[in-house]
């Protein structure tokens, strides 16, 4: 019985023993002693550590964007080198190889990150991504290139979910949504870099040779990111979930040192004793319904986004633009993503994650039809830029929203599951997107607009707003009902 209820009971029942306290007080065996990790992170505030982490994760995120989008820029050169024709089975296989690897990697690496820690996967995936990226540049045959792209996707498929779990667990509550969108905005940086690099390579080398330099140069940012990552500690939340309280405190001490603030003297609360949260919990009860709705959003957004932008350089090429003009136009579309991200970063903390995500998806659906109706080169460029800004704003909101919906013990696994659903869509999207280059533009854009509309409805159906809330942890506080 709590102290307040004890006094009430004494006044009404004079200690008769028939009063039952409505407040459940945790016993010492189950109650955490000390400060929770979120409270410590919030006290340490936003400082140099978080900005450095953003820069490091952002660099690798940009490198991953380059790898994901690489083949759409390299395709003209690869086609010239290996005699591929637009829309052929070999072309579709090449474009889907990276996504197929990411499909496998997202689940495997996400699961490993929840068991062995974020940092180990954090470093391993980047190392493998660089090695396999360089392997693809030296491919003597198309089969070799397809295998190298699959392996590259396998590696970077783990970078995506793990980076977001790591970032979410180091950022103070008040800033977490914006920082997760800021991290996603580095995708635009990678898109700009790969478009600019492809433009330069197209002017310096013949297409049959230039794609090899394009693949080799695109692997270098990942190498720089790997070296920068060596100084980042593991997530204190992940360490606590695995029973390493001293390691978690050491990680927080590094945050305090970087931010030049004192680490609270109170002991760090260990994990709350309660039923273990396993990966199977992602598919049961309230959390299972949340996973299902989120999965619809990830699948539909990915299908539409990659279906359009994987084939866009080939569509522009088919309309008579030379490679330089194609890459310049693609560069403008990449730059249009920046205001989409900035607006999303502002909106997620003003109107919330769910409304921002649904709103951008609806704008994306409308933009797809505006693109279809555009009749002049200026209108085509303008509607394409609006579509690019809307879809990347949606991606920013989705990446901010998703890690906040899963408890610590399965956060990276949950992100991996979502990323794998996106990769399923990415594997399918080249076949649907091929309609763009075979004269069935209206059919393709109708499919993609419908995807964005369904995604908006699914985002709203999640039914949870996470703005201003601390991350769900482990044990009893991991129950989705508590955070619904």
TrEMBL record:
GO terms for molecular function: transmembrane transporter activity. Its main location: membrane. It comes from the Bacteria. This is MFS transporter. Residues 53-467 form the Major facilitator superfamily (MFS) profile domain. One of its GO terms (cellular component) is membrane. Keywords: Membrane, Transmembrane, Transmembrane helix, Transport. Coiled coil: none annotated. It is found in: Membrane. The chain crosses the membrane at residues 53-73, 93-113, 120-138, 144-167, 179-201, 213-232, 292-314, 326-348, 355-374, 380-401, 413-436, 442-462. It is a multi-pass membrane protein. SUPFAM superfamilies: MFS general substrate transporter. It holds the Pfam family Sugar_tr. Signal peptide: none annotated.
